[in-house]
Amino acid sequence: MHYTGMAAFEIAGRVVWDVPLVAASIILGGLFGAAALPVALHANTVKWKALGALVLTVAICSHHFTAMGAAAIMPDPRIVISARALPADWMAAGVALVSIVIILLAIIGLALDVRDLRRAGEAARMQELADAAVEGLIVCNETEIVAANRSFAALACVNGSQPAGRPLASFFPTVFQGELSGTTQTPLEVGLCATDGSTVPVELIRHSILYAGKQHQVLAVRDIRGRKRAEEEIHFLAHHDPLTKLPNRTSFNEKLEAEFTTHRGAERCLAVLFLDLDLDRFKEVNDLFGHLVGDAVLQCVAEKIRGVLKPGQMVARLGGDEFAVIVPGLPSAGYATRTAEAILDAFNDTGANLPAGVTIGTTIGIAVFPNDAPDRETLLSHADAALYEAKMQGRGLYCVFEPSMGEHLRDRRQFEHDIGHAISRKELRLVYQPQAELLSNKVFGFEALLRWDHPERGAVPPAVFIPVAEECGAILKIGEWVLRTACAEAASWQQPLAISVNVSAMQLHGGNLPELVGAVLKETGLDPFRLELEITETCLIKDIGRALAALRQLKSLGVQIAMDDFGTGYSSLSNLRAFPFDKIKVDQSLVRAVDTSDEAAAVMRAVFGLARGLKLPVLAEGVETDAELTFLRQEACDAIQGYLLGRPCPISDFAQHTSGKGRTPASRRLSNHELGVVKNSAA
């Protein structure tokens, strides 16, 4: 550029060049100019850019001034300046104008550079913010992705490629532009096609932004796989039993309703099987091995039933140890028994999944549509009736519904209903049987005995209604009523006689018996030492730890504890030593045989010897004859209770004892009239 300009220079003279200096100027300009570029680009910092500019300045100056030093102007008047040469004024104006244009272009270039730098900084900050977001973010025009954050790249580009520059439809092939326009407020659930071919459920939310000076769309892409899994789990738990993974009652009803719709008018039958585990054994498993083993047993039961069912058949856990099976598409009603037999055979095979020593059985009731019932509710009721009948006949059986079974079940349900309302209807009453010391013949207390006067059934024996009350759960409410009524009655006596009340296993293991007894004693004002709770040993073995804790709490209240019905069931020396008993009550079955059976007499002598060794008083129940009384006197029995002393009667019949105005000697024989009454009375 320099020597071209010099060649255009016209003067009245000649320019003489110094060739070495010309060569030197070219070399200096080339070397420093070449060095300026790598210096300036060494690093993107002000320092290196300034060094590059300095080297470039050295290149220009060294070249220019050396080149000017190489030129010598020799004046020559003979040389005439060409008429085409520009005047000096014009040259000055032109140079000035071009310089101004260059400066303006430089300013414009600087402004554009500053704008681009600002935009680049904003884009970098936006990218940093976008990369910090957990959700995927993409910037796109109508058809193409312009930018995307790391979250979207990790979600969509499994192979490590970049989504920018790819068509939007390659990731969302099922989404149309019209659908995106409606996602400003409402998320749109779609499938994201990842680069590995998998489909990821996502939510899209769209917003419009100004990006790089143009209108673009921002799509927030939210991965909803976790939410979908949670929804599926919630749906599963809503329709399945969490322990056995079997369908629950809701799924069972839905399936049964669908099968009813299918089988109406069809020639095939639909059977429903109700299964009930051997309840007593199942409770023993929980009590002896713990609830974890009980859960394992239920899981094993579910596997056994599920293993014998065919496709289309369904087993559901309705609750507790109750299971139900739906068997559709049967050619006739008789085919339902095949499934029942297969289930019973599966239960007969103990298998390796149950703990050692644990066996479990089941009872099955069967009802068939349309033979046994026209609708779903009736079919279920009849299956329940068949199950009840099977349980009455024995365990490990199945029964097919018959019309007579429904009447039995309704009678049972009515009986349960009546006993549940016996207290509110004032149908229950207490009778009292005296207890006396054998040596002094003095009545020291009474046992409260429960009676139920049903308005239609008459006097219902305790041996009949007590087991039903325990099965249906009414025994807790009845037991509380008995305890409260007996304590209130005893608190009203002028004489501080003892009152004995029987306690059931459900009351003992219910968890609140000590609290209930404490509240009743406080409410009635009865001296705790006067209250004696009679507990059978069968109640204790269900949960020895809980029973022992309850008895110790009762003892801390000052209440007396007696072991009832000793000599039957699970009577053992270890239990007498472990539990805080104050008295042993020998069962009447042993007492009544002492005068006729040497074995019974030997057992009674052993009981008295055991009691003396443990320093526990003995009360003999059911004493009715002089021979029994004589034997008990010989063996130094402490107290007696039975018809020989007095039959169970209202407490008003024993006013002479409760008021302290008289007493009945235990050795007195009953009159013939009284003896006849006794023999014809219920125990």
**Overall geometric form:** elongated
Termini, distance in Å? 137 Å
Give the strand order of the largest sheet, numbering strands 1, 2, ... along the chain: 13-14-16-17-18-19-20-21
Work out the radius of gyration: 52 Å
For the largest beta-sheet, the strand count, sense and barrel status come to: 8 strands, mixed, barrel
- Could you report the average pLDDT, rounded to the nearest whole number? 83
State the assembly state of the protein chains: single chain
Structural class: alpha/beta
How does this structure look, described?
The chain is an alpha/beta fold and 683 residues long. Helix content is 48%, strand content 20%. The chain is built from 25 helices and 21 strands. The strands form four sheets. It has an eight-stranded mixed β-barrel with strand order 13-14-16-17-18-19-20-21. The chain has a five-stranded antiparallel beta sheet with strand order 4-3-7-6-5. A hairpin with a 2-residue loop joins strand 9 (314-319) and strand 10. The longest helix is centred in the N-terminal third of the chain and has 45 residues, at 88-132. Mean pLDDT is 83; it is low at 662-683.
Short description:
The protein is built from 25 helices and 21 strands.
Keywords:
about 675 residues; single chain; alpha/beta; 21 strands; 5-stranded antiparallel beta sheet; 25 helices; about 20% strand
SSE topology:
Elements: H1 2-7, E1 13-17, H2 19-40, H3 46-69, E2 71-75, H4 88-132, E3 136-140, E4 145-148, H5 150-156, H6 177-180, E5 188-193, E6 199-211, E7 214-223, H7 225-239, H8 249-263, E8 269-277, H9 279-289, H10 291-308, E9 314-319, E10 322-330, H11 336-348, E11 362-369, H12 376-393, E12 398-400, H13 403-420, E13 428-437, E14 443-454, E15 458-460, H14 462-472, H15 475-491, E16 498-502, H16 505-509, H17 513-524, E17 531-536, H18 537-541, H19 544-556, E18 560-566, H20 573-578, E19 583-586, H21 588-591, H22 598-614, E20 618-621, H23 626-634, E21 639-641, H24 655-658, H25 672-679
Parallel strand pairs: 11-12, 14-16, 16-17, 17-18, 18-19, 19-20, 20-21
Antiparallel strand pairs: 1-2, 3-4, 3-7, 5-6, 6-7, 8-10, 8-11, 9-10, 13-14, 13-21, 14-15
Helix pairs in contact: 2-3, 9-10, 10-11, 12-13, 13-14, 15-17, 17-19
